[in-house]
Amino acid sequence: TERPKATVNVQPAGHVFIRERVTLTCGIESGDDWNYEWYKNNNLLRDAQRKKYEISNVDQTHAGDYTCKGTQSTGRIYTHTSAAVTLTVSAVKVKPTITSNPEGAALTGNTVTLYCKLHQSAGWTFYWSKHTQSSENETITNVYTISSVSPSDGGQYRCRAGRGNPVYYTHYSDALWVNVTG
Prior knowledge:
Elements: E1 6-11, E2 15-17, E3 22-28, E4 34-40, E5 43-44, E6 52-55, E7 64-72, E8 85-90, E9 97-101, E10 105-107, E11 112-117, E12 125-130, E13 137-139, E14 143-146, E15 155-163, E16 168-169, E17 176-181
């Protein structure tokens, strides 16, 4: 019979930052009772024998190619080794860029859309702050829309992104002025 296939899934992404939490999951397409083996750069990880391999405080020593495979307790059935998933670890916190549409002044009653641009991997939640507010607004996407703007919506806006649990935050963007005119 054909041996089952193993696959590696990485959360939050293959490109992470120092101090983030990373979870690698070994998925096997059939059966349950598996014993798991994890490899980094083709070397067996002796401390990793479960379906999930968690790195709670990632650093640059964790960068590399990860694979997994499974054997059943009888030892007679084993999976193919998964394809490698590359984990890249960056030391520098990223800083998003904030832009607006329209650029410049917005007329009262019109819509202003802010964009928080982050040239990194997936899984981010975006946080928006205005210099006169103590709390942040949260969005799943990198877009923040102010419908029917009024002069009180004018001011400095900044954004940042976060992901994981505990949350890893980027730096704040530079401030962007939103000017509302009559």
